[in-house]
Write a structure and sequence with these properties.
heterotetramer, A: 562 residues, mainly alpha, two-stranded antiparallel ribbon, 71% helix, B: 758 residues, 68% helix, 3% strand, globular
Chain lengths: 562, 758, 544, 100
């Protein structure tokens, strides 16, 4: 047992920053001139909390500014940590390495972007008026609403920070229970965030569904974890890994436990058939939150999956993992389902949700390839690199797409394809950015989405194409002898082709339909800049030196995972 | 109107061309060095006329001084003619050594390597070059082509530029005309089969363009397409023939092939069977181009083009291309010099096709009333003569009857010459008639208002023109005589030879030849009939239409070519026969030698060989006596009272009325006559076949592509969409269903894993 | 890094185009509206400069290269290669040889012309830069010797073309653009899998591929030759590559995107699509599939013959059944591209050279055809064959160009197409004998549909002084082509004839390349399979 | 001392009931309770494990899991309230604006 003093605090700076941020968010808006009279005296000491707020903290933007500030700081810190290749252990339950650093970066960047977006999506009103007796009922209620809205800002950003905190902790934990608890922290906050969109009917409904299905999933997961505990007596990942590899035949308890945990994580990443609530949640939540779910939350799920699958259950080289066939089937179903469902979706958010499901399928396919045990350590790392790379750049273009939707959200146009109609005429820059995001999602070179998809297919092909029997002289002989994993690559390819249809459709709608309203989009300068930056990086990470740098980082992360 | 306007001053700019050959000689060129000018000058003039004409379409100077490009075209053709004559002169009397035959290679068109059967690349690089090849046949046809092109271009300036319907469009005519000329010259001089084919196709294009000159006429557009496609069918076979030849010899150059046709590439012995197929396919190409049975259907329709075009392309030059190609087959079969034996069948097939076409065309010509159509069928028939002659020649060559072969070959080539000159003139004369009829008709009907029902080409509207158009009548008379084979005039000298040699082959060697022999002998008589009929219907008798009375021979530029060609037709044949052209053309000698006058006559009328003698006299009897006699009985008649033609024609007209009159109304209503009117239904059958096979099949293909192949794609799309809608329905919106499905999925996956691992 | 001439050729138009599209969005209103006015002039200037550079290369460098001394795998104008994504072995490596150079020149030649033809395009400030981007992407395909970059450029060509069809297309443009994009993309991702399988089998090169240990270097792959141990896999990869390339060419039965795309595309788009983009398929097939898998190519000769024959013959028949002028021309492209497969299948240097020349010749002729069809659309607002007659009276220049283009395309001698046709067919006879009757007889079909379409548009009228005008003109006065269309078509026509009369300008290098290619690559494979001439009998046996 | 396997057995039964209940009941509150059941079955397992292994961690896990469950219920009720305030239903079947 290590004592607190052994913990090297510097390893947890991003988390600590978020905690500080949360505290600041709680305290700052409440600062006021309240004084407490020292009993029995007339002197009153200012306690700074309560009373009439100071002018400086009266600004309703305070929470969002704090959040943005916090996230940018943690983002920078994560960058620094990646740069410095920081690693180390926090007790026995957390480990910091390039992998966790990279994911901290992913999470914090997602949250940063999300908070910038929400800065505009749910803006507070300045100078709220206190209702007076003379006001009519209507104006009283609006005024109260405004007040409430301003009040909610804090809640929202606190929840956002909670999500970040949970995610960062989760990626670092090496103890299954901590992993699960932090996951729950993030999940529970995100349920609320989904439901936070109260102005519309759908907010509550989306939150409910997401919450119910999510809680069932996490209950299943926690039950699975308890089974693992029963089996092993310890939830340290390393310890589980040792027991697993020493296991001769599959212990049903371990197997079922692991399977149930996978269900929970499968829900997080949106794998079929656990994905059903995702489109509902995405379409019900406000766009930035949907973006958060599609990127950070998904990344979190994949971190968990990778941790338990690659660290715990990965068999020796050359033997097939027990779960391989399951993941193969799930991945194929997931990508097909996602793509087909997205094909005719007329709600852009649902479409993006389904596309996100499909992308989960691609990544699961890559994971299944590792489970086949065909690859060497190196080729496995290559595949993991591909997956992580994909998760990283998803932040750019998937979140970017949601950001574009969030620009439209104000006008209430983000729930229907009609809203995107004629976007190019209203704002060509945004439309072009959106088109770039779509093309990148579709995997069109030279955008970064292509590179990641290429890496995944490459990884799969890499380990499977050589499996066909050497003596096969004809295609049919060869095809019948090749490992099933190879067909995953073909399946990805076919699915990419199908997906192209709906991605391009967005382009068509944006460029060639008459706009519903002709007034220009809201300025929202920072959000706009963020979108453009996302678009630019989507291109830059596709080919050239920047992609090179990112790939190297990701590669290191992948190496440190395995 | 009566006075023929002379516009010769317009020709002054062309005078320097006459000095071109001397000038080049002085600066040290050989005649063959200048040969490329024959082709390139027209080639360059073609776009010049076209572009200038399109831009300065309505310009007065362009129209009046340059004759809408006519002067330029004439100049280009003058250059070609000058140089062609120079080469001819050089060949006959000059110092240049033509024995190497393949004279020059201008540039290497394409070069490539060849993979041999031992998996090595051939050491010598294969070259397909461009050059010229000159021998007697080349020279003769080159002369014919350049000379006739020049004259017909001259004629066109009268014919085309005075027709109001051609206003502002004549530059197109002249441009296409020179391009065509270039094709013809190039084909004749080409030194390889490939380049022969290339120019051959260029001519096909020009033929298409010129037939379709009156593009707005539905019939013209149709005829143009028909001509191109029909010849194209022949051409693709020709192409395959070329491939086979290439396969055999590893080259398509005359030099390489003719050097030793019995050994192929790398010294391999040539398989006569393969060569037979190659030559047969080449012959199919020739059949298409020369409008022989069964690809003859395009030629009559081609008369839709302006008359100079008919004169040039469809009588005098282009249709000779097929003959030229067959003539080029001689070295393959000439077993006397390295030829490949065993190709007798080729000669027989060619002779058969020739015989059949000759007879058939003559039959159809019986009932034609359109003056140009008659000439068209006559062309087909005469070309068929030449084919028969060539077929016989090839047969003789292959069976090693060298002397007979040379006579047959020489006679065929000589007939080509005679026919080209005569037919060129006949068409121009007919053009003159048509033109004047048209003018007269317009004149009558207050110029401008066209009466579309009136057909200036229909002989039933003519009659009695002899007095109105003396020059035309004379020209046409000599032309017809040449075609008929009236003794001592033009075609007689060559036709006799062909018929006699065919009979000789049939009687003495190969009974199969009897069929073409009989056919062409019969055709000789029929020729006598239909040519006389045409002349008599046009020029003799009383006018059948008012229009005739207003006809004058007044258009400039038209008379000179007629006069020149009349002279050539009248005495040229005899003159060349005196020079023993037959042996010259068959490469027996390379000089023209003067024979004695009497010797030639004796040779022609009283040959020592009895067969030849009998056949010769039968021919004369049939073609000169019986045919014209019947024609005179049917169509002959005196001119209208008070009308007088010049002496010989007047005499002829009066003579034609002396044989009584026979009414053929009943005969013309017979079924057979109707069949002939309908060209023996060949066109109908072809049309029917095409409309029942090709068109439906094309539509079927289009349908198949749209519905099946693209339909599969569309089906994939619609299935995707419908399955997408279905799959979206699974997301019911109820959280309970989600949980249920997740649970079911989870459990089934557990079962699956358990099953796999157990 | 020193950019070499080929990189400049590729990147300058690409980036200029992108800049010209983005700049007006960023600049203040006034400046951007000024910029928009001169955009097309800038684009034209750059395109002409690129053409000048390409021609200079030809005259200066390529023209003097002794092609006979060039071993296969050696390229001229190579650059100093540097890595783009070194961890997975992607490099920027460019070079040209006799296979790619004519295509490079052709692209540089066609771009200014297609700009010229659509000089007055609406929204020209986007149109012309898009064409420049197109140029960059197309040239990128032809110059890059790294499969990754090749693939990137390959797909990059889709985007400008997609936008061209979408923004300037006809009524049904959305469907066509989507079909075009998805169809060809789907095919090329199969090709991508093939590329990746190849990639995985490469052996490491020093300095690149730090992460994977593999590289995309095409030259190394072809030098390595038969580097895949697994024969079945080799064939499989070959088939995957074929799917990608054949769809682009396009070959029956994966051709149906082409007519739709063509009919809807703007004139310049059609010209580039037919002129260069289709050649990408043939080029890639030769460059990648045949070069790296000669043995598979030999094995699959029957398939090649079948595909080529199907495209050629069936395509021609379908052409005949079309009523839309542009559709017909599009199918004729399908038909002509079939000859390329046939040329390759002959396994003769002549056939290869013929196929190369076919690519080149078709690249000049088909833009002319589409320019003509585009002008019809532009001036008569319809493409329906037979809805107008006797147009020659109203549009003499257009009719003249139509005549020239149509004749060139049906393989009339002294025009570029004939050279290729005759070379391929000679080689085809040498290998397959009487089977050649099928392609040659198809020439008649080709002639039939071309002539019929001409007869029913520019010929035939009821009046010598007026044509029958289409309803779509609504009684307006018909016009002849505009000066810029006219100039563009003139240039194309002139070059068609120049290369028909003097084919050796490009033929010589193609011929030498083919010979080298045979000796270096194919002969071993042929010897192994003991095939000298892949005759008909051999094919029939293979089917057993 | 009860044999831990009985506890585990009870847990399995509870888990089954909970899982079945989640998709059997329409009422969101009941579903929430079923989820509690599932969580509690996990708790039972932890307890059984702690007993079996004599590991104190198991107890800690149980305690934290209970806390998680509490948080979950709190949040769940809040969200349900929010849904009720807009849709005036807490039936999971009736709340289906978002579907397909």
């Amino acid at each position: 047992m290590s004592s607190l003093s052994d913990i090297s605090i510097e390893l947890l700076i991003p988390e600590i920053m978020m905690i500080i941020g949360i505290l600041a968010m709680i305290i700052m808006p409440n600062l006021g001139d309240a004084k407490i009279r020292i009993p029995l005296t007339n002197t009153s000491i200012p306690v700074l909390i309560g009373g009439t707020r100071f002018n400086q903290v009266n600004n309703p933007y305070i929470p969002s500014i704090i959040a943005i500030f916090t996230f940018s700081l943690s983002f920078i810190v994560s960058l620094v940590m990646i740069q410095g290749e920081t690693n180390g252990n926090v007790g026995e339950i957390m480990e910091i390495n390039q992998f966790t650093n990279l994911f901290s970066l992913i999470f914090t960047s997602t949250l940063l972007i999300t908070s910038i977006a929400t800065f505009y999506v749910m803006p507070p009103r300045k100078d709220p008026k206190i209702p007076k007796n003379s006001d009519s009922i209507d104006s009283v209620s609006t005024k109260i609403n405004i007040l409430m809205n301003n009040r909610r800002q804090v809640d929202f950003y606190i929840l956002l920070s909670m999500v970040g905190l949970g995610m960062c902790l989760m990626s670092k934990s090496t103890h299954l229970f901590l992993l699960f608890v932090s996951l729950e922290l993030a999940s529970l906050s995100s349920y609320v965030l989904v439901g936070f969109y109260k102005e519309k009917d759908i907010g509550g409904e989306a939150g409910t569904k997401y919450f119910i299905v999510g809680s069932v999933a996490s209950a299943v997961g926690i039950y699975g974890m308890s089974l693992l505990y029963l089996w092993n007596g310890d939830l340290q990942i390393n310890s589980l890994s040792n027991s697993w590899s020493s296991m001769e035949i599959l212990d049903p308890m371990a197997g079922i436990g692991m399977g149930l945990m996978l269900v929970a994580f499968g829900f997080k990443v949106g794998a079929a058939p656990f994905h059903l609530a995702t489109p509902d949640a995405y379409s019900g939540a406000s766009s930035p939150i949907a973006g958060l779910l599609a990127t950070a939350s998904k990344a979190m799920g994949f971190v968990a999956i990778m941790k338990i699958l690659f660290i715990v259950t990965l068999p020796e080289e050359g033997t097939e993992a027990y779960w391989m066939i399951a993941i193969v089937i799930i991945s194929v179903i997931t990508m097909t389902w996602g793509n087909f469902a997205a094909l005719t979706s007329d709600n852009p958010k649902r479409m993006l949700a389904y596309s996100s499901v499909a992308h989960a399928g691609y990544m699961l396919a890559a994971i299944a390839a590792i489970g086949s045990g065909l690859g060497t350590q190196n080729s496995n790392i290559l595949i993991i690199t591909a997956v992580i790379f994909h998760l990283t750049i998803l932040v750019l273009f998937k979140l970017g797409a949601f950001l574009v939707l969030s620009l439209l959200e104000k006008e209430g146009l983000s729930h229907n394809m009609d809203g995107l109609k004629g976007l190019a005429r209203r704002d060509s820059t945004i439309a072009v950015s959106m088109f770039i995001f779509m093309l990148s999602l579709a995997g069109i070179p030279p955008l970064s989405g292509f590179l990641s998809k290429l890496l995944m297919i490459n990884g799969i092909v890499n380990i499977s194409a050589g499996t066909g029997s050497l003596s096969s002289a004809t295609i049919l002989n060869w095809a019948s002898s090749v490992n099933i994993i190879f067909w995953l690559a073909i399946s990805i390819v076919i699915n990419s082709a199908i997906s192209l249809f709906y991605y391009l459709r967005i382009g068509l709608i944006m460029f060639f339909e008459e706009p519903v309203s002709s007034k220009p989009l809201e300025k929202s300068i920072y959000l706009r800049i963020t979108i453009i930056i996302c678009a630019i990086f989507t291109i830059l990470f596709g080919i050239g030196p920047l992609s090179e740098i990112l790939l190297e980082i990701v590669n290191e992360a992948a190496q440190s995972l395995v | 109107m009566d006075q023929v306007k002379h516009e010769y001053p317009l020709l002054y700019p062309l005078i320097p061309i006459l000095l071109l050959a001397p000038f080049l000689k002085i600066i040290g060129w050989d005649s063959v060095d200048a040969a490329f000018l024959i082709v390139t000058v027209p080639l360059l003039i073609f776009p010049t006329i076209l572009i200038i004409g399109q831009i300065f379409n309505k310009n007065k100077v362009w129209k009046n001084k340059w004759k809408e490009g006519g002067i330029l075209a004439l100049g280009a053709l003058a250059v070609s003619l000058t140089i062609a004559l120079w080469i001819l002169f050089d060949y006959l009397y000059g110092s240049y050594n033509f024995t190497d035959q393949s004279i020059l290679t201008w540039f290497e068109w394409i070069t490539f390597d060849f993979l041999q059967s031992d998996f090595t690349i051939s050491e010598e690089i294969r070259i397909i070059g461009v050059g010229i090849w000159i021998d007697q046949v080349t020279l003769m046809i080159l002369f014919v082509a350049t000379f006739l092109c020049f004259l017909i271009c001259w004629f066109s300036m009268g014919y085309m530029n005075t027709d109001p319907i051609n206003e502002d469009r004549n530059h197109r005519f002249y441009a296409e005309f020179v391009l065509f000329s270039m094709g013809m010259f190039g084909m004749v001089m080409a030194d390889s089969f490939l380049w022969l084919f290339i120019f051959w196709e260029i001519m096909g294009l020009c033929s298409y363009l010129l037939i379709g000159f009156y593009y707005w006429k539905v019939s013209a557009a149709y005829a143009a397409k028909k001509a191109f496609l029909t010849t194209r069918i022949g051409d693709v076979f020709l192409m395959v023939g070329l491939f086979i030849l290439y396969d055999i010899y590893g080259s398509l150059d005359f030099e390489v092939i003719f050097d030793d046709p019995s050994t192929g590439v790398a010294g391999a012995l040539v398989d006569s069977n393969q060569l037979f197929w190659a030559l047969l396919l080449l012959f199919v190409g020739a059949v298409g181009k020369s409008a022989q049975f069964p690809l003859h259907v395009w030629l009559p329709d081609a008369m839709e083009g302006p008359t100079p075009v008919s004169a040039l392309i469809h009588a005098a030059t282009m249709v000779n291309a097929g003959l030229y190609l067959v003539a080029r087959m001689v070295p393959f079969v000439d077993v006397h010099y390295n030829g490949v034996s065993g190709l007798e069948n080729l000669g027989i097939i060619i002779a058969f096709i020739g015989g059949i076409t000759a007879f058939m065309a003559a039959l159809i010509a019986f009932v034609q009333n359109d003056i140009k159509k008659v000439l068209a069928y006559s062309t087909m028939s005469q070309l068929a003569y030449i084919f028969t002659g060539l077929g016989v020649a090839l047969w003789f060559y292959n069976t090693d009857h060298h002397h007979a072969a040379m006579i047959a070959f020489g006679a065929s080539m000589f007939h080509l010459f005679n026919h080209a000159m005569a037919k060129g003139m006949l068409f121009m004369a007919s053009g003159s008639v048509i033109h004047e009829m048209h003018h007269a008709h317009d004149h009558m009907n207050n110029e401008g208002s066209h009466d579309h029902d009136f057909d200036p080409q229909d002989m039933r509207n003519m009659g009695g023109l002899a007095s109105k158009m003396p020059i035309t009548a004379t020209a046409m008379m000599f032309g017809s005589m040449s075609i008929i084979g009236v003794p001592l005039i033009g075609g007689f000298w060559s036709k006799e030879g062909i018929i006699a040699e065919t009979w000789k082959a049939a009687i003495e060697y190969e009974p199969l030849m009897l069929i073409p022999a009989i056919l062409i002998l019969a055709t000789a008589g029929m020729t006598g009939f239909y040519m006389s009929r045409m002349w008599l219907m046009t020029f003799a008798g009383e006018p059948k239409n008012d229009v005739v009375n207003h006809v004058h021979e007044s258009t400039p530029w038209i008379r000179e070519p007629l006069l020149i060609l009349t002279v050539i037709t009248a005495i040229g044949g005899f003159g060349l026969a005196l020079l023993d052209i037959i042996h010259f053309l068959s490469a027996d000698t390379d000089h023209l030698e003067m024979h004695g006058f009497l010797y030639t006559l004796e040779h022609a009328f009283l040959p020592s060989d009895m067969t030849t003698r009998i056949v010769g006299w039968t021919t004369i009897l049939l073609s000169f006596i019986i045919g014209p006699l019947i024609a005179a009985r049917v169509h002959g008649g005196k001119l209208q009272k008070g009308m007088k033609a010049i002496v010989p024609i007047n005499w002829l007209v009066i003579l034609s009325s002396k044989f009584g009159h026979q009414d053929v109304e009943n005969m013309s209503k017979s079924q057979f006559s109707e069949a002939l009117q309908n060209r023996l239904y060949f066109d109908d059958i072809y049309e029917y076949l095409i409309s029942k096979t090709i068109i439906p099949f094309a539509n079927l293909s289009a349908w198949f592509d749209r519905i099946i192949i693209d339909g599969i794609i569309k089906q994939v799309e619609s299935i995707s969409v419908s399955s997408s809608i279905q799959i979206r329905k699974i997301t019911t919106g109820s959280a309970r269903d989600y949980i249920l499905m997740a649970a079911v999925g989870m459990i089934s996956i557990f079962i699956l894993i358990w099953g796999v691992n157990a | 890094m020193n950019l070499d001439i080929l990189s400049i050729l590729t990147l300058v138009p690409l980036f200029t185009g992108i800049t010209l599209i983005i700049l007006p969005q960023i600049l203040p209103k006034e400046m951007s509206s000024n910029l928009k006015k001169i955009t097309r002039n800038i684009c034209m200037g750059i395109a002409l400069a690129m053409f000048a550079i390409a021609t200079m290369i030809f005259i200066g460098t390529i023209g003097n290269v002794e092609w006979t001394n060039l071993l296969h795998g050696e390229y001229v104008l190579k650059n100093e290669q540097f890595s783009l994504i070194s961890s997975i072995g992607v490099q920027w490596k460019v070079g040209a040889d006799a296979l790619s150079f004519p295509m490079i020149w052709l692209t540089a030649f066609l771009i200014p012309i297609s700009m010229l033809v659509e000089w007055d395009a609406k929204k020209g400030h986007i149109f012309h830069p898009l064409i420049l981007i197109m140029e960059g992407a197309l040239l990128g395909v032809f110059v890059s010797l790294d499969l990754f970059v090749f693939y990137v450029f390959w797909e990059l060509t889709l985007i400008p073309m997609f936008l061209l069809i979408l923004l300037w297309g006809g009524e049904d443009r959305k469907y066509a653009a989507m079909k075009f994009f998805i169809y060809t993309f789907t095919a090329s991702v199969f090709m991508l899998i093939g590329i990746l399988i190849m990639y995985f089998h490469t052996t490491p090169l020093p300095g690149i591929g730090s992460m994977t240990g593999h590289h995309f270097d095409l030259v190394q792959m072809s030098i390595q030759g038969n580097f895949m141990p697994n024969e079945g896999l080799r064939h499989f990869v070959w088939i995957l590559l074929l799917i990608g390339f054949a769809t682009k060419m396009p070959s029956v039965p994966v051709h149906t995107w082409l007519p739709d795309a063509h009919v809807q595309a703007p004139t310049a788009g059609s010209m580039l699509l037919a002129g260069v983009m289709l050649k990408m398929g043939a080029y890639g097939f030769l460059r990648v599939a045949v070069t790296i898998f000669p043995e598979s190519t030999i094995i699959f000769i029957p398939l090649l013959v079948f595909l080529g024959m199907a495209s050629l013959v069936y395509g021609a028949w379908v052409c005949m059944g079309q009523t839309n002028l542009k559709r017909m021309v599009a199918y004729s492209s399908v038909s002509h591209m079939g000859l390329i497969f046939l040329g390759i299948a002959t396994m003769q240097p002549l056939g290869f050279a013929g196929a190369l020349f076919m690519m080149f010749a078709h690249g000049i002729i088909s833009p002319l055809l589409f320019a003509v069809a585009g002008s019809f659309k532009h001036h008569y607002h319809t493409l329906e064959i037979g809805s107008m007659r006797g147009i020659a009276h109203h549009s003499p220049f257009l009719s003249g160009h139509m005549m020239l283009g149509w004749m060139a395309s049906l393989g009339l001698p002294l025009m570029a197409g004939f050279v290729a046709e005759v070379a391929i067919l000679i080689a085809f006879w040498l290998s397959f004998g009487w089977l050649v009757m099928l392609p040659t007889l198809t020439l008649v079909i080709t002639a039939t549909y071309y002539l019929t379409s001409m007869q029913r548009t520019i010929f035939e009228s009821d009046n010598p002084h007026q044509g029958i005008l289409p309803d779509s003109l609504h009684g307006d006065k018909p016009r002849d082509v505009t000066w810029h269309e006219n100039t563009g078509m003139f240039i194309l026509g002139i070059f068609t004839i120049i290369f028909g009369i003097f084919p050796f300008i490009f033929w010589d290098m193609m011929s030498v390349w083919s010979t080298e290619f045979m000796t270096e690559i194919m002969i071993d494979a042929m010897q192994n399979n003991n095939i000298w001439r892949p005759s008909l009998g051999w094919i029939l046996e293979a089917f057993k | 001392m009860i044999d831990p396997s009985w506890i585990v057995g009870l847990g399995v039964i509870l888990f089954g009931i909970g899982l079945l209940g989640t998709f059997y009941h329409k009422n969101a509150i009941v579903v929430l309770m079923c989820i509690e059941l599932m969580l509690n079955s996990a708790n039972l397992n932890f307890v059984a494990g702690a007993m079996y292994y004599g590991d104190v961690n198991g107890w800690v896990f149980t305690a934290i899991a209970i806390a998680i469950a509490a948080a979950e219920v709190a949040i769940g009720l809040a969200i349900l309230l929010s849904m009720y305030s807009t849709q005036e239903t807490i039936s999971l079947d009736d709340a289906n604006i978002l579907r397909n």
